Amino acid sequence: MNERRKFLFQFGAVAALAGLGPVVASASTLAPSSGSSSVCDRFRALLNQSFVLRDPAGDAEVKVRLTAVEDRPLQAGLEQFTLHFDGADGPRLPEGLYRVRSKAMQSFDLFVSPAGADDGPTAYRAVFSLLT
Q: Which residue among 50, 51, 73, 106 sits deepest, i.e. has the most Cβ atoms within 10 Å of its Cβ?
């Protein structure tokens, strides 16, 4: 049963990417170990910490701060939440897949979308839909 759960967790993000929109691209990197808290709780513990978003080509790099972790309604077998980031002033990154670095956790890939008005502060969000 644990092997099936692990498989679904690791590859559920890929399936969701194809059909549900922005999600984490490497869920196995973020998967909680047995007996630990959820992925959402792991991010909640990192509120107000800095992260760096880097595009796959390495051309752009933006420093952001995790400002909110928003839970979605619970559904059996599905963990859903949204991360909200505030960025520094400067050019806004387009929607896409970015390598995320932080001192607090291993690097991982994340699909990030700009949030808010184009002429407002630079903000980003990442939406998660993970099978549990």
A: 51
CA distance 14 to 110: 12
CA distances (Å), origin 61, targets 46, 103, 115, 129: 20, 16, 17, 26
Which residue type occupies 61? E
The predicted-structure confidence for 83-117, as pLDDT tens digits, reads as follows 999 997 767 889 999 999 999 889 999 999 999 77
Specify the DSSP element, H or E, that contains 53: strand 50-54
Burial of 60 (0-12, 13-18, 19+ CB in 10 A): middle
Domains in the chain, please, with CATH?
A: 2-131 (2.40.30)
pTM for the full predicted model: 0.72
